[in-house]
Design brief:
The complex is a heterodimer of chains A (88) and B (434). Chain A is α+β, with helices and mostly antiparallel strands and 88 residues long. Chain A has four helices and two strands; from the N terminus they run H-E-H-H-H-E. Chain A is 24% helix and 11% strand. Chain A has a two-stranded antiparallel sheet with strand order 1-2. The longest helix of chain A is centred in the middle third of the chain and has 7 residues, at 45-51. With 434 residues, chain B is α/β, with parallel strands linked by helices. The chains are: A alpha+beta (88), B alpha/beta (434).
Chain lengths: 88, 434
């Protein structure tokens, strides 16, 4: 595998779209910012990882970019209650 | 109360957050000598590889920092006058403190061979070092990397991704021998070679040679001369204890602090890589060079400084890193002894990983997915998870919470046990019960 092979997508986005949220494990996070840097709509995922709060952001596409690119396995998808109140 | 924090790394920032969670009014002054302020030091590795822009490395915006309401003084504290509660700075000014936190981190041990002062001999402590490395990295040119642990690999992979031909020199016969077992070392070495790194075992630099004050080659102990345009080293780090030593604070290898992060002076605290924190569980004082313990220590120190007495309870050391492109989680006690490539503790390292536990090693694994467990009498003492990370979360909880593994211990230790399946099954059972 080449070095770039690390970017392979292991996040199964088709199973989580619309019904999942990105949840950080703060203890793993070193605040490098790769998640925020790669978010296509500019959500500051890193700040969620600092506070340990799930990314409850109404614009989050659950595209899996941050989950797949995090070099330390900080982020994972969790199923959510579709009727839970989200952030704006 | 008037709080002064020395050091703008994660321990210092976490301390300010803790103080502000209790005390919104008192004055806080942060003194830092890093021109870039607070950024993710571990993230420098991804800046070197080009995965990140340097501007992305700052976890806090100016607005975030403004909300914490502290004064920032750029400079270096040169003297602590404890009797008068005064700090002297290199800017010839003085600052008085009620309570002081020393969170100045650690620095790379110098390479002590002739020629180590030549231009192009580089370390990776700070953002400024990373920028200097990138300035010297030239596509198609040769780089030599010496040292061990995570930082040496970060250097090798960073330089490789910048198009350099990288030679990685190991003094012993394998990579990170006091944390990884032989099979794990070989996995990493094999992957490095596949990426294009040339490995040299039993190779020790005895001299750096150059012309026009720039490095041009390294001479090895076996007499070989290896041409290079850059030499990057990571042979360990040393806590920056000079200031504390001058002030007469108790020091061992780091600044000695109790479980409240307090030095032998009740108004002076220490946290992060510079602190050697007392661990009530083991009765030992331990150095860590890890982001999360630094943040936790800084936060705990801040609470104690502001009067909320809180013990720092050291969790088993835990780090997730990428070794040769392979996500690797190291939890608890996994290693043994010393490593010839590291003079001291390495960055991203914990002394606990080196201890030889009174336990039995059970292991399984394929070429790139590997799991190793250190099985104690009733609990798991440590684990290494390489590749597939599904089990790293349950294992972290099992080790941190000292969960009783008696029901699966015999099965884990059976010859050719499928330890991954056994752990997964055990964890599923735990979750069902809760």
């Amino acid at each position: 595998m080449t070095f770039l092979g690390i970017f392979k997508r292991d996040a199964k986005k088709h199973t989580v779209l619309a019904s999942g949220q990105v949840v950080p494990d703060s203890a793993r996070c070193v605040q490098c910012g790769i998640c925020t840097y790669n978010c296509p709509i500019g959500i500051d995922v890193r700040s969620h990882a600092w506070s340990g709060e799930p990314v409850r952001h109404s614009q989050c596409l659950t595209c899996g970019e941050c989950v797949a690119r995090c070099p330390r396995g900080v982020l994972r998808f969790e199923q959510t209650d579709l009727f839970a109140k989200g952030e704006s | 109360m008037n709080y002064v924090i020395i050091g703008s790394g994660v321990a210092g920032i976490a301390a300010i957050e803790a103080i502000r969670s209790i005390d919104s009014a008192s004055s806080i002054t942060l003194i830092g000598d890093d021109p870039y302020g607070f950024y993710s030091r571990p993230g420098l590795a991804y800046y070197l590889t080009g995965e990140l822009h340097d501007k992305a490395l700052f976890p806090r915006t100016a607005e975030d920092l403004r909300k914490l309401n502290f004064f920032y003084l750029r400079g270096q504290a040169t003297k602590i006058l404890r009797a008068g509660h005064i700090l002297e700075l290199d800017t010839q000014s003085t600052v008085s403190y009620g309570r002081l936190l020393i969170a100045v981190g650690a620095q790379a041990l110098p390479l002590e061979v002739p020629g180590a002062d030549l231009e192009g001999v580089l370390k990776l402590d700070h953002m400024s070092d990373a920028k200097l490395i990138l300035k010297h990295a030239r596509r198609g040119k040769s780089a030599v990397v010496v040292g061990g642990g995570i930082t040496a690999l970060e250097l090798a992979e960073g330089l490789l991704s910048r198009g350099m031909r990288v030679h990685y020199l190991l003094r012993g016969d394998r990579y990170w021998s006091n944390v990884l077992d032989e099979h794990e070392s070989r996995i990493i070495e094999h992957r490095l070679q596949e990426e294009g790194v040339t490995l040299h075992h039993h190779a020790e630099v005895i001299e750096v040679t150059g012309g026009h004050a720039k490095v041009s080659a390294v001479r090895l102990l076996n007499g070989q001369l290896l041409k290079c345009d850059l030499l990057a080293y990571a042979i360990g780090i040393r806590p920056r204890v000079g200031l504390a030593k001058q002030a007469g604070l108790a020091i061992d290898r780091g600044i000695l602090v109790n479980e409240y992060l307090q030095t032998n002076d009740p108004d002076v605290f220490a946290a992060g890589d510079v602190a050697q924190a007392y661990d009530p569980m083991s009765g030992r004082s331990i150095l860590d060079s890890l982001w999360t313990p630094a943040r936790q220590q800084g936060f705990t120190a801040g609470l104690n400084m502001a009067g909320e007495k809180t013990a720092y309870l050291k969790a088993p050391p835990f780090n997730v890193t990428r070794l040769a492109g392979l996500t690797t989680t190291i939890i608890g006690t996994v290693g043994r002894g010393r490593d010839d490539d590291l003079v001291g503790i390495a960055r991203g390292d914990s002394e606990t990983w080196r201890q030889l536990p009174d336990s039995i090693v059970a292991q399984t694994g394929f070429e790139v997915n590997r799991l190793r467990l250190l099985v104690g009498e009733k609990t798991l003492l440590g684990a290494i998870v390489m590749g597939d990370q599904k089990l790293s979360f349950p294992l972290e909880k099992m080790i941190t919470n000292n969960m009783d593994i008696s029901p699966i211990r015999e099965r884990l230790l059976a010859p050719n046990a499928r330890i991954g399946d056994i752990v997964a099954e055990y964890w599923a059972g735990v979750n069902t019960r809760h």
